[in-house]
Write a structure and sequence with these properties.
The protein is an alpha+beta fold and about 260 residues long. It is about 25% helix and about 30% strand.
Amino acid sequence: MRGGVARLSSATVKTPLGESLTALRVAFTASAVAVIALVTVVLTGLGIWAWGLNWPQSDRLTLEAVLLTAGTFVLALVAAVVALAAYVAATQTPDLAPTIVFHVGQPNRPVFTVEAVPPVGKAIKISEWLQTQTTEVRIENRSRSSARNPALRIDLVGLSMTDFSAPGWEIVQRVRQRGVTAIQWDGGADYAIHGRWTRELPGFNLQDMYLVPEHLTCELRLTVVADGFNRVVRLPVEIIGPDQQPVALTSPPSQTALTP
């Protein structure tokens, strides 16, 4: 139990979709084997029948060749269908869902407190304590297909940090007079999240963070990618003032630098 939410092991969860796909694969395999067996039996019977006809030997040999050609065509068609089904199964895209849990708030529902509410147009300093530290960062693969070469990018919309450092994470965007506005974790080409599995990512601390004055809203924008997959998840950030009341983000546009 973390962040007030219980998480079931993905290995014990059976979904109707997964069971239906398994049943479909079993039925398809059984159908392919049945077709091959039927073709073999029919061609053998026709071959015996054709050889017993009261025809010249050359005609009987020609008919046997025609039957063999027809059987080869049917078997090739079955093989092509099986190969196509295997290709479709191998190229299915994963279904990745990122989750971030801070010490304060629920999963994917960040809540930050400001030290003070300054005059309009000034940057607002986010209080530094457990609220900016993650307790859990994970990517869940909800599909049955493996996700290869995954990565997670976090864009700070309406927020900025003067600096950032965390093992496994890199700064990928820094804005002049603002600071760090995007960080990223890369799994690499040899990294995979298998179907129905969850991968834990390194945690981090959003220290030295400010609320950018010209933004009327702020959020953490999570972009999770893998080979053939891309998803953007927006997490609105709730800002709480020193009086424990929500802060109304109504500041007009400003060119104020990232200094309190």
